[in-house]
Model the fold of this input.
Amino acid sequence: MLKYFIKRILLLIPTLIGVTLISFLLLNITPGGPIEQKIQQIQMAQEAGGANFGVSEEVIEGLKKQYGFDKPVHVRYGIWLKNLIRFDFGKSFSFEEPAVDVILERIPISLQFGLISFLLIYLICVPLGVLKAVKDGSRFDHLTSVVLIVLYSIPPLMLGILLRNFFANPSYFDFFPLQGAFSDNYEYMSFGEKILDRIHHFILPLLCYMIGSFTALTFLMKNSLLDEVKLDYVRTARAKGLSERIVVYKHALRNALIPIATSFGSFLGIFLAGSIIIEEIFNIHGMGQLSYTALLQRDYNISMGIIFLSSLFLLLGRLISDFLYVLVDPRIDFR
Done:
């Protein structure tokens, strides 16, 4: 098994190179890059001043050299890859500062949302799925299934707008802030007040973050446990006179958790968790909003930094899922 994980770790390098190479090429062939945007800004400034001299070739060449576009795309990718070893994503075209600083500034907000939603989803969905399996076919099972399906069918955009209009609106229920992740006077608050202020701002966005994940995980837990209790070893445990509680919670539950454990590796994704729609609705400056802004403004360095980090965490998460799979089920042996 050790050899398997060593191979997987070594495979991370060519996989990351392949992902970043394709992304780099796609971003660079997309029209409307920083050079075109600067040229457009110059032309608009000339028109506003009552003149239109155009942009000379010398200015265009100067812009290309300034932004590093005076070299072929494969040479630029090689330079970017070399700088990556030093964790240098280059300078942001739109923020005029190192791209890594811009990304690291947004990660804490998304990390808070991702970590809290991850914990709440698993702490609620796993016990709920087990309870639904134990009470399969009961009124509780049917009622919770209807509620979960209804929640799953609500688009996050619509839910976010409804929550803002009804629970952050003085005309209805002004219970929560309209936008942002903290209040304007946040830095002057005490530690306890800061925690309460964060919670107050996080409730509505967190509902939008989590609502679509409840259904899939709950039904996965329920169906996995129902499949286990039908197997022969469970029938044998019952035949020995063991109580239903011991049969379900001691024998069947561990094996039923195997599909759940395989998704635990996704916890690394919380470092870059972000929803463009939700962060735009609630004006939260997280990774989702940053990704959207970088793509609109063709900020290649920020986009490449986010793609690299997202791919790295995703691949490491897959590796951790395999490791957890072995811990939950010792019968698994990776060769």
